Structure formats: C-alpha cells, structure tokens
C-alpha cells in the first residue's frame, strides 16, 4: 500500500475555494452556511479507498502495464486497466473507483466507458422557455408554496427505490440528478436495477436531471472532457428513457465562468441548478447525526418567519446515503406538508413547462425506450 501517496492525493483534491460569496438573503442556520458550495466534497473519504489495495511494480510499456505505476512519466496502463488515483495500474473496484480514477492514464476507468448508440453531441439544442441556460445558474424557486426536494449522485441500490415509496405515500414529487457511472455502482444503462428505478421515477412524475457521467469537478477539467461528462450521461439516460434532460447540477457545485464551464453548459443547453437549502446529509449519515440535517432543513425553511404563502425552497440531499433514504426523506416531506408547502419538481417550482425539461434523440443504443414520451 502507498498510504503517503494516498494522503497527499487526498489533500490535493480537497476543495478550498468558496465558489459563491455570502448573500444577506441566505440564512446561516446552526453554523451551516448554505453558500459555502465549494467546501462540499463528500467523495474525499471514498476516493482514498483507491490506494488501499495497490501493489508495487516496475514501470512498463502501456500495452503491458497491468500492475505498475501510471501517470506522468510512467505513462498509461494497458487497455481495459484502470490507473488509480494514487498512480498504480490495476483492475477491480479499488483501482477503478470514480471519481478519482486517473482516466487520462487508465483506459479502463469508468470515465472512459462510452454508452451504446449514437453520440448526442450533435443533437440540436434549441433554448426554450424563460429559465436561463448556463451562466451563474438557478438557486431558488419562483413558485410560492412549493419546495423542490432534490437528490444527487444516485441511483443507489435499495435507497432510491425506498425514497420513491415515501414520495408515493405523500403524493409528492422530487428531482433526481443522476450520475451515470460513479462510486462502483455500475453503469446506469447496463445495470437493470438502475434502469428500472430511473424508469419508475420518471413514470411516477418525478423529474430526471443530470449530475454528469462520473462526478468530475467541471471547473477543473478541459472543455473537451467537460462536454464528455455531459454527453456520455445523456447517451446512457437516452438508452433508458429515450431522451435526456435539460437540467443539471454540477458536482461539488463547481462550474465557474473562468474555467469556461458556464459557457459550455449554455452551449449544451443546460439549466445549471444549485439550491438555497443544504441538508449537509452526506456529512450526517449516521443515526446519531442525521438530526443535524433535519434541524438545518427545518431551520432554513422557517427562518425569519418564512411561510408557504410567500416563500419557496430548493433543497439538496443525496440518495446514496442510508439515513437520507430511511430517515431524512420522511422528515422533509412531513415537515413541508405540515407547513402547507407542496413537494414538486424543480421544473414545476420554476414554472417551466414539462416539455422543456428534456431533449429527444432517436439514436438509442441497446435496450433504449425510444417510444417513451414525457409525462
């Protein structure tokens, strides 16, 4: 194992820049500043796993390199082999974990997987409706009495399906920002459980949106790689539903103008969607900690005497965490119902017609549901 390398890598990827300044209208509740977006990095502890089972090896030519070092002067791993975040070739979950797999030197990294069917890069992208495309993004709803509860990073086995059951009991709707090939969960269009739960979510009236292909920081990669993060997720979602979304949320809430991200996403026809209520659930995923997320959620939506008659909210949580699925979700829905709010999709909370939420494409891969229509 190369623990010193792993520690250095973990320190290097820790976000240290605040992407958005404080705003007077954004309350600080229980010590949580919901504008501190760039401090979000729920994957740091998970990325570190990629160094735990690596072995030493000599520098090899890329076509032979299945167990040596990779990256920089060491070059690439062999075809189908991953280059771990700490620079060693190998296969299996501890080398191929994304985000964190060094896809530039690891052909087998999930980032490099290409979903079946035609590339969506050339699909026409007319900009419809009044919701901004690209730019600084959307932080809040525009429909008093509504709360848009959103989930990032999934789907995840068991958890996302449980969340759908809870929403069904409340006759409520949510928005799922889907990541296509992250955290060793399996590529969404090739994993039957993921295909099924995404299809179910859409059929039951929830909104499907994008959270990129492998959860890369879009401000930290090239324009070419940034667009691949979006189009590969489009292709996978197209292979499941027959269309792909126009709404997205940047991983780590990071999409800056200086990096070119804001313009690239405008060119791709995406509504960049942030939030004004942060549950911080990824840091509270234990029975004794999730109460913090409940307090922050309720504290924010009631701050300053806010009420359903005059206010609306856009919250963030993550369906890859047990406590979010089995505990926090029920609390959020019960709370907003008691306070007189309705749980709706992001599109509805922005008064954006449903026909603007997705783009169609007829070049689906194996198993595509090209006849599916937007409900």
TrEMBL record:
One of its GO terms (molecular function) is chitin binding. The keyword Transferase does not apply. Disulfide bonds join 77-89, 82-96. Residues 356-375 are annotated as: Disordered. Transmembrane segments: none annotated. Residues 145-344 form the NodB homology domain. Keywords: Carbohydrate metabolism, Chitin-binding, Cobalt, Disulfide bond, Hydrolase, Metal-binding, Signal. Residues 1-19 form the signal peptide. One of its GO terms (biological process) is carbohydrate metabolic process. Residues 67-111 form the Chitin-binding type-1 domain. InterPro entries: Chitin-bd_1 (IPR001002), Chitin-binding_1_CS (IPR018371), Endochitinase-like_sf (IPR036861), Glyco_hydro/deAcase_b/a-brl (IPR011330), NODB_dom (IPR002509). Its cofactor is Co(2+). This is Carbohydrate esterase family 4 protein. It comes from Aaosphaeria arxii CBS 175.79. The lineage of its organism: Eukaryota, Fungi, Dikarya, Ascomycota, Pezizomycotina.
